[in-house]
């Protein structure tokens, strides 16, 4: 035990104890402060990661929407050019050739491969009467009209081959086109 009487305390020992407890408390306090700083950094870094991920997701969505819009515009442009070409050949063959040449010469078609294909085709059939594209809506006395199943108002018109009697030169026509062609056929057959 100790050499000192029970009621007497050693002031140096008390001071050392006090200093030791003070240093220990200060070390614990510093440790807690460091833990708080670390936890604050971790919490703020998680928030920053969340904000960064949200920003990245938003930027990616904007990019994908832009790409989708550009693809849609390109598709619509191609559809418009296809419709233009089809409208230009919705006539007799000679006029269709002239119309296609007009499209090539004026640059109204922007697709280089389409322009090259049309130019090559026109050069191939140049000087060959009766050759060329045509979607002329006309009927002859030998025309056969067939309704398209499950598509009300849609018809397929086929010309009969005079040699074989089989259907040849079939094309789709609307009722209005059929009625107009029938009227034209009536006028042609009633004229001398």
Can you walk me through this structure?
With 192 residues, this protein is mostly helical. The protein has a domain of 47 residues. 64% of the residues lie in helices and 9% in strands. It has four helices and three strands. Strands 1-2-3 form a three-stranded antiparallel sheet. Helix 2 crosses helix 3. The longest helix has 78 residues. The N and C termini lie far apart (147 Å). The relative contact order is 0.06. The model has no long low-confidence stretch (mean pLDDT 77).
Q: What percent of residues are in strands?
A: 5-15%
**Which class do the helix and strand fractions yield?**
mainly alpha
Instruction: Please bin the fraction of helical residues.
Output: 55-70%
Low-confidence stretches: none
Number of helices: 4
Shape: rod-shaped
How big is the Rg? 45 Å
Report a brief summary of the structure.
This protein has helices at 11-88, 93-106, 112-125, 175-190; strands at 144-147, 155-160, 167-173. It is mostly helical and 192 residues long. Helix 2 (93-106) packs across helix 3.
